[in-house]
Each structure stands twice: as structure tokens, then as C-alpha cells.
Design brief:
Largest sheet: 2 strands, antiparallel
Structural class: mainly alpha
Number of strands: 2
Strand order of the largest sheet: 1-2
CATH topology of the domain at 120-177: Arc Repressor Mutant, subunit A
């Protein structure tokens, strides 16, 4: 095996410390060589380290993609919920105006005539969907009906939104009474 020679420059204090340690009948070059071998043995191999970093980065990228998808789903749900709820400030203004005698009342839109009941097909589709996801709350189930296109209510602005959870509860109670659930 070919040998390579190198020069190491030591200051006086470091050289004195090496001499004080004792050479155990070994030349200084053998001691330095053994220390270098021990040091290099403790270092991780470069290709393994690069592969581990690549794996870690790939795992982090996958988790970030997953989190991004979850944030998109939550944003969509919050947007749907916001579409069905009036802001608190609007509700407070309307109730304050109604409490003042002679105050101008907010414009009342004529309500469309109430629909009496759901078509039989829609009731059956709702009952079938409920049997597949019984653990959901009424609000979550209303969102599922909306997302699946089974039933959507119409908001004041004409947009399609999930049904009211109280209405969903009534439908499910009616379905139980009719023997559909």
C-alpha cells in the first residue's frame, strides 16, 4: 500500500501537551495517524447522508402537500358556512332598528311560498345517504348532502348552500317515522 506523507505544524504548547501525554513507545507520527483513523471512522459516509437528506426532504414535501390539501378543504368549508350565516353586526343592527319605535325597518323581501315537503326521490336519497354516514352531525351531514348534489338550499343571494341543520333533523325524523331509516 503506498504511503502518503504530510506535514503537520504544531505550536509549542500543543507539542508540549503531546510529549507530556507520553508516546507509549510510539513515534509521534503513529499517534497522529491513529487519531486520524479514529476521527474518520466516526464520520458518517457521505452517500448515506445525502440519501437520508433526500428522503427527509421528500417526506417533508409530501406532508406539506397533505397540509395544503387540508387547508383548501377547511377553507371551502368555512366559505360554505360563512355563506349561510349573517354577520353578527348585521343581526345586531336589524334587532336594534326593530326595538326603536318609529325607526326605519330594514327592507323586507317577500318570501317565496313555502314548499311542503320534499319529493319522494329526494327523501329516499337523503335516507340512503344517512345510512352510509350515521356518525356525522346534522351540520356535517347537510354539507355532505350539498357536496354530493343530493340537496342544497338557496341563500338570499341565490347561491346554493347546505341546508339548515334543524331542517335536516326534521327530514331525518320524518324519514324514521316513514320507515325509511
Amino acid at each position: 500500500m503506498p504511503e502518503h506523507r504530510g506535514t503537520i505544524r504544531l505550536d509549542e504548547s500543543l507539542y508540549a501537551r503531546l510529549e507530556a501525554r507520553g508516546s507509549q513507545e510510539q513515534p509521534l507520527a503513529a499517534i497522529v495517524r491513529q487519531v486520524l483513523v479514529d476521527y474518520l471512522a466516526r464520520q458518517p459516509a457521505e452517500p448515506e447522508r445525502a440519501a437520508a437528506v433526500e428522503e427527509m426532504l421528500a417526506a417533508m414535501a409530501a406532508r406539506l402537500d397533505d397540509l395544503h390539501g387540508q387547508v383548501r378543504q377547511l377553507t371551502a368549508r368555512v366559505d360554505m358556512m360563512a355563506a349561510t350565516w349573517q354577520p353578527i353586526a348585521v343581526i345586531e343592527q336589524e334587532s336594534a332598528a326593530m326595538r326603536q319605535p318609529g325607526a326605519a325597518r330594514p327592507e323586507q323581501r317577500p318570501r317565496p311560498p313555502a314548499r311542503h315537503g320534499l319529493p319522494r326521490e329526494t327523501r329516499e336519497a337523503i335516507a340512503d345517504a344517512r345510512t352510509l354516514c350515521e356518525g356525522l352531525s346534522y351540520q356535517e351531514f347537510a354539507i355532505r348532502l350539498h357536496e354530493r348534489g343530493i340537496y342544497s338550499a338557496t341563500a338570499k343571494d341565490g347561491s346554493k348552500v347546505p341546508a339548515n341543520r334543524g331542517t335536516v333533523k326534521q327530514w331525518l325524523d320524518q324519514a324514521r317515522a316513514a320507515g325509511l331509516l
